[in-house]
Amino acid sequence: MKQLILLLFTISLVSCGASKTVRTSKKVIKGEWTLSSISYSEAGTYNVTLLSDASKACFEGSTWQFIPNNNTGIYTINDPSCSTGARNFVFTIQEIDQQTGLYDFLLKPTDEKHKSDTNQGFRLSLTSLSEAAMQWQQTVSVDGKPFTIIMNFTK
């Protein structure tokens, strides 16, 4: 009976915590990043508003700070021709496939501007993460076809 209770207790501890891969990812993502480039899966010129906030041109060169111990962060638009300033967000990293290294990444702005937008969050794929580089991809539908926005960060 004691072994059964110990086994159940151990299983509950393991199942409640984040996986080792997600915990490692949170350690790597911690700190300040620069959104260095944004590209698209299809050739052409597109008028895309990212995170219901600003254009591609405004986001390129923005700085991002991730604080994993409370899953919060701040991104700052630095382009003087855009609405500059800091924006707060919360984020969650969820493991999808340990072999491919792909993660589900949920980013939810928490500033007053976004609170009126029905508390909208944005689901992205964290497709690459190292000590010096990170890549997010967001797939949306354009004219009924998948269209991927690729965001590359450097640390």
TrEMBL record:
The keyword Manganese does not apply. InterPro entries: Lipocalin-like (IPR024311). Residues 29-95 form the Lipocalin-like domain. Residues 1-17 form the signal peptide. The keyword Signal applies. Keywords: Signal. Pfam families: Lipocalin_4 (PF13648). This is Lipocalin family protein. It comes from Thalassobellus suaedae.
